[in-house]
Amino acid sequence: MDKYDFLLLKFAEYLAINNFSERTIANYTQNVRYFFEYLKSQGIENIMEADRQTVSGYQAAVYMQTFKGKPLSPVTQRGRINAIKALYRYLIKNNLAHYDPTSSLSLPKCPSRLPRNILSKKEVGRLLSAPSLETPAGLRDRAILELFYATGVRTSELCNLTINDIDLNGGELRINQGKNAKDRIVPLGEAAREYLEAYLKEARPKLAGPGNLVLFATKSGRKFRRSDLSAILKKYAEKAGIKKFSPYTLRHTCATHLLKGKAGIRHIQQLLGHSSVATTQRYTRVEIADLKQVLKRCHPRSRKEIDACEI
After folding, report:
1. Which of 71, 187, 280, 311 has its CA at 20 to 30 Å from residue 258's CA atom?
2. Residue 248 — very low, low, confident or very high, per pLDDT cuts 50/70/90?
3. Are the C-beta atoms of residues 214 and 162 closer than 8 Å to each other?
């Protein structure tokens, strides 16, 4: 194990101690590994030798890099730079570096994309009704779908839920170590609360063994993985006749339906666990996009032919 491998191991331990998710740790360590490979290619065997010119050269190299013939996306580029910024924060905090050469690096601007595949209320109804309530797994899946739609919880957050995170009497859900290692408490909603209660009483004892604290257990009694939930969601989406669907569809749909129901941006931000209200405000752009479609379809001056608008 060379110096860089040892440093990478210690950096991963630091992230774990600070409650970063497994996915974030994997992403950060992989991106730092790319940086270390660059340093070695420049003949730099000790990270203390890296200066502002070095990290600027690395950022330029990232900008010029391609994947399958195309430049790396701004999101990927941002992830590469964010990782080495986190690395130097760790180094300085532990007195392993005297200054931060990445402080002058500017992060690439990422395009603000509108959430895709927002479901209608009818589509949500078909999706929620897709699981059979006659089996423990079906009742579990209905509770999962209801929880996704009611709270907008992330897939990784739902996987990590335990029975201690549910307060049925208070109608609340505690999400521990969400994105950026932040905790939050969100209301369940009556429908989600009822299905969770039914699942805990009738289905979970048949799926999770004694002493197992995980909230949603697979048929083998283990904790769900992200891929497990993704497969379940897509299976029921197909059954409900929904063609375009991803694990984030219900999260985006939850936020959009709340906004259409006149919920405040700050409340939606708190529910979804967004660090910045700017992230939540993209859902207002979905509303504007919908409005543009309505005007194009219905306003006399938005079409060449002037006829009655049927709503």
Report:
1. 311
2. confident
3. yes
